[in-house]
Write a structure and sequence with these properties.
This protein has 337 residues and is α/β, with parallel strands linked by helices. The protein is 32% helix and 18% strand. The protein is built from twelve helices and twelve strands. β3 and β4 form a beta hairpin. α11 packs parallel to α12.
Length: 337
């Protein structure tokens, strides 16, 4: 619920409307898991709240830790369905990769989540629960975890295919009555689903990451069925109408496969696709998944590709691979339990 809805709850319970703000503070800022924790709300009102509502927090049912410190969490979302979130520590930063759907409709050839098919959209509550329910320690005996500094909607699902819930989650993350995060701490990744991409750009200030992976349109369509409905040329035309030269950042995600999209010809096509749009390119190592006949590009090819983009005025970096040993790396989330 947002602040207005929480104030309506207070009104229904014949409480002052300011109790709605207290509820928001307890649920979002303080992370309360029960009404009993809300010490500045009367016992009578807490009893009424407990009889009529639930906070809705659900702890993860399992946590798996990688040798590099990455932690993958399994959450139950009812009806026997599960989703995964990935906690990625990096010195004084910690990023949580959250899911927005159970499975995915996009069916990208190289993605384990896509192989699951689409099962369900997550509610805003199920999305926010991933953020609020990451334990301070994943397991007894481990060092304390770095508090979250960033959220990326790069887990299971296509966020813009569940835009109403994702937008509500972003509102809760950024609102003064919610978690009060800067939108610059949040990135939404998408294959380029229009017109929801334009709505995201117009109605929020979060960073945007576009899954490009190849600028060869025929090749992209063969690997990413969404290309047919949302051509990457149309996506880039939409993006060209926005300013990414200041605080808001646009990233292009580019998984590299050996002998498929890792040569200079593909780098040239990518440079042409980008044109004058201010962005950065994240080159991503491919992580093998069952049933997919693709191999990761060599380190030498990735460096060559990066250098070519840099020489043509495009900031490009090779993303460090994290959590591959626990199937938590990019493209590997399949909730195998």
């Amino acid at each position: 619920m947002n602040l207005s809805e929480l104030q309506d709850v207070a009104y229904k319970g014949r409480m002052p409307r300011f109790v709605g703000k207290q509820l928001a503070e307890w649920i979002y800022a303080k992370g309360a898991v029960s009404f009993d924790e809300m010490v500045n709300i009367s016992k009578k009102n807490k009893q009424w709240l407990a009889e009529n509502y639930e906070i809705g927090r659900e702890a993860p049912v399992k946590a798996t830790r990688s040798s590099d410190g990455t932690v993958k969490y399994l959450f139950s979302v009812g009806a026997g369905r599960v989703i995964e979130s990935v906690y990625i520590p990096d010195r004084d930063r910690a990023t949580l990769c959250v899911s927005s759907q159970v499975g995915c409709k996009m069916n990208c050839y190289f993605c384990a989540t896509g192989k699951l098919g689409f099962k369900a959209n997550l509610s805003a509550a199920e999305i926010i629960n991933q953020v609020l329910s990451i334990p301070p320690r994943p397991e007894k005996g481990f060092e304390p975890m770095t508090p979250l500094t960033n959220i990326v909607f790069m887990g299971m699902g296509e966020p813009l295919d569940n835009f109403p819930a994702v937008e509500r989650a972003i509102e809760i993350l950024t609102a003064p009555w919610g978690l009060a995060w800067s939108p610059k701490r949040i990135t939404v990744s998408t294959v380029g689903k229009l017109p929801q991409l334009k709505e995201l750009l117009d109605r929020t200030q979060v960073h945007v990451a576009i899954s490009v992976h190849t600028a060869d349109t025929a090749q992209r369509e063969s690997m990413m069925p969404a290309q047919k409905a949302f051509p990457i040329s149309s996506v880039m035309k939409c993006l060209s109408g926005y300013d990414f030269s200041h605080q808001r950042r646009l990233s292009l995600e580019y998984i590299m496969w050996r002998g498929v999209n890792d040569d200079i010809a593909h780098a040239e096509m990518l440079v042409k696709l980008i044109g004058k749009i201010d962005c950065r390119v994240n080159l991503i190592r491919f992580h093998a998944i069952p049933g997919v006949d693709l191999q990761p590009a060599s380190e030498e090819r990735m460096i060559m590709f990066r250098n070519y983009l840099n020489q043509h005025g495009i900031t490009a970096t090779i993303r460090a691979s994290r959590g591959e040993d626990i199937e938590a790396a990019c493209g590997m989330l399949a909730a195998k339990n």
